[in-house]
Design a protein that fits this description.
single chain; six-stranded mixed beta sheet; elongated; two-stranded antiparallel ribbon
Length: about 130
């Protein structure tokens, strides 16, 4: 069981003072009490943004300090990159290749194991042939 650090006023990179504590060299806040202007990577993603190369400026912790998430400044976040049509087509082709069995050539409907690249039916046939 970790002891909670004493709550004090910590200064954020933009100069504001908020209630929190210092942990691992970062201003730390309990879950759900992050200051405005800071967001986690998932929150940025939901808003159509990405950290854009900036580092973590603070963190939130929960589960008695066993889980944490980094906080980024929303003002410094950049818009997410949108793939071009050619990039999307290349991804569709690559994913189709991962689903195609190398023995029978059928689409398995899911990504096949990288070790064998065979579907379940071909794998069972190969096992039965090896045993017999």
């Amino acid at each position: 069981m970790t002891r909670r650090k004493p709550v004090q006023r910590v200064q954020l990179p933009d100069g504001r003072w908020e209630l929190g504590w210092w942990q691992d060299g970062l201003p730390t806040f309990p879950f759900g009490l992050a200051p405005s202007g800071l967001a986690t990577r998932r929150q940025l993603r939901a808003a159509g943004l990405c950290p854009g190369g900036q580092g973590i400026v603070a963190q939130i912790v929960w589960r008695r300090g066993k889980a944490w998430a980094g906080l980024y400044e929303v003002a410094k976040a950049r818009p997410k990159r949108i793939p071009s049509l050619a990039q999307r087509k290349a991804l569709v082709t690559a994913m189709a290749a991962r689903r195609c069995c190398v023995r029978c050539g059928r689409d398995a409907g899911h990504c096949l194991p990288r070790t064998t690249r065979t579907c379940w039916n071909c794998e069972q046939t190969a096992i039965a042939a090896a045993v017999a």
